[in-house]
Write a structure and sequence with these properties.
The protein has 3 domains: 158 residues; 140 residues; 185 residues, no CATH class. It has 4 helices and 29 strands. It is mainly beta. The chain is globular. α2 runs antiparallel to α4. Strands 1, 2, 3, 4, 5, 6, 7, 8, 9, 10 and 11 form an 11-stranded antiparallel sheet that branches. Strands 12, 13, 14, 15, 16, 17, 18, 19, 20 and 21 form a 10-stranded antiparallel sheet that branches.
């Protein structure tokens, strides 16, 4: 039986408090590998074959507090971005996973990672539950392997420490940045024009080898608009990589990123080592997947250090609560004529629905900033029939300061039937709030019709409509509860009673990304 002296109990208490310190921040923390990290690949007992070892491994990973339970603190691990040097070759290791620390009778930790090596197949790495050897979150020291170090295995020793926030440099893409895809040398197929590329990323210094300064590229959050009409939707680009700049006789730089474009699996974008980098910290570099051979993707990157803020949260929410990550928050509830027209997102006096508030639009930024009436622009995709009959609102009042939440009063609700985009002069490109108003679209498919009546009947019968989190979807008359009166209100909306127009058969005008 394992026994613990009083000093041991005190140490465990200190460690639990320490882990809680990271959780109290309630924000991602970037960890950077230290020289104590290692990479091994080869045979362990009982197998016999060479075992290759190197401590020339560098990179970063990000930990974000997740759920807790009575025994463990849990963290999401993202943006795993590791580089292992082997002679002139380099292995790029990317992926994500989870980390947990705690225990009942012993203080243990476990790191589970799903990793790709050089964009190969995803492989599962696991440390198992092991005693905590270092004091988390001040340091992370865990060894993960594919096969528990039995026979042929790949083993990664991760020793890492938090990166001071002052060393995480945010970047913003400038208007010269473009994305292009299609056929180049040796193949025949359409090639897109150079499309505007917008977004942000961050650099974390990894060190200097005497010739080059190396940086981990993280938090890649880019998007471009495809050229196809009629209403282009933004295509996201995300991933991680490395940037190095320096040189011996002439200034040179190189960027290598493993990026997912839209729903495509990660691909390796590279610039090769080219002349340039004298403008650093500004970055101007061209990357391809296949060096312009046959089908290729091309990113012409132009970026500068940014002090611009990003959006952390908003109310109404950034994402629709019923179809996460697929569309902006969609308001399907009551709108009306005369005094009832004040109902909706931005309409003062509109009743709240559980955690969703409507009367004021609030937004919280990633850092301290100033926000005035002139800093907020609202663009609407639909303003009624005839156009302008339900005008796009303006911001009439801004409250609070610093990070936020900033509360914005609008001159009226966003027009039903379309999308409203709020852009901020103080925010990085692409940082916008996008809201849709689709009266009666209970099914969330972009069209209001009698199928929405069926959806509401089913929700009332199976109890979904009574859940507090579902009120923004089913409480059609905004009285704080759901019942057959909401069916009556939905019928009125479809027929055009007490609303701006009949909504039966109306197809909502979707969002279009406006400007940077």
């Amino acid at each position: 039986m394992l026994r613990c002296r009083p000093t041991c109990h005190a140490l465990i208490a200190v460690m639990f408090w320490s882990a809680g310190a990271l959780r109290a921040q309630d924000a991602p923390v970037v960890y950077r590998l230290t020289p104590a990290s290692s990479f091994e690949q080869g045979c362990y007992p009982p197998c016999l074959c060479p075992l290759w070892f190197t401590d020339d491994i560098r990179g970063t990973l990000t930990l974000t507090p997740a759920e807790t339970d009575p025994l463990f603190e849990h963290y999401d691990v993202s943006d795993v971005n590791l580089f292992v040097l082997s002679g002139e070759n380099a292995m790029h290791i990317t992926g994500s996973g989870t980390y947990q620390i705690g225990g009942e009778f012993a203080f243990v930790e476990r790191l589970l990672l799903d990793l790709r090596i050089n964009n190969g197949e995803v492989t599962h790495f696991d440390s198992g539950f092991v005693p905590v050897g270092e004091r988390f979150p001040a340091s992370l020291n865990v060894t993960v392997s594919m096969n528990n170090m039995v026979c042929f295995d790949t083993v990664i020793g991760i020793a890492a420490e938090p990166v001071p926030s002052s060393q995480v440099q945010a970047y913003v893409l400038t208007t010269e940045s473009t994305y292009q895809e299609g056929c180049f040398i040796g193949c025949a197929c359409p090639t897109t024009p150079e499309l505007s590329l917008l977004g942000t990323f961050s650099l974390v210094p990894l060190g200097n080898n005497g010739l080059f300064s190396e940086y981990s590229v993280i938090d890649v959050d880019w998007f471009y608009l495809p050229a196809a009409p009629p209403i282009p939707q933004a295509v996201p680009i995300s991933g991680v990589g490395i940037y190095r700049v320096g040189g011996e006789f002439v200034a040179q730089h190189e960027m290598m990123l493993d990026l997912s474009v839209g729903a495509n699996p990660p691909e390796h974008f590279h610039s090769n080592l080219v002349v340039g980098g004298t403008e650093f910290p500004d970055i101007n570099i061209l990357m391809t997947v296949n060096d312009f051979i046959c089908f290729d993707r091309v990113i012409d990157l132009h970026a500068v250090p940014s002090e611009l803020v990003t959006i952390v949260s908003a109310n109404p929410p950034l994402d629709n609560p019923y179809l996460p990550d697929t569309q902006p928050f969609r308001d399907v509830l009551q709108t009306g004529t005369t005094s009832a027209l004040s109902q909706g997102i931005g309409g003062l006096g509109t009743p709240d629905e559980n955690d969703v508030t409507y009367g004021f639009v609030s937004v919280t930024f990633s850092g301290e900033t100033e926000l005035t009436l002139d800093d907020v622009t609202i663009t609407c995709s639909y303003t009624g029939n005839p156009p302008g009959s339900t005008p796009c609102p303006t911001v009439t009042e801004v409250q609070l300061t610093d990070v936020g939440p900033w509360a914005m009063a609008l001159s009226g609700p966003i027009p039903p039937g379309g999308c409203a985009i709020l852009s901020f002069a103080n925010a990085a490109p692409g940082q916008q709030l996008r809201y849709q108003s689709a009266p009666g679209d209970v099914s969330m498919n972009g069209v209001a019709n009698t199928q929405d009546l069926l959806q509401l009947v089913q929700a009332l019968n199976n109890g979904d409509a009574t859940a507090a989190d579902n009120l923004p979807r089913y409480d059609m008359n905004r009285n704080g509860s759901t019942n057959t009166q909401d069916l009556l209100r939905l019928v009125q909306l479809l027929n055009g009673a007490l609303t701006t127009q009949p909504w039966n058969g109306f197809q909502m005008v979707p969002c279009v990304v406006i400007g940077p």
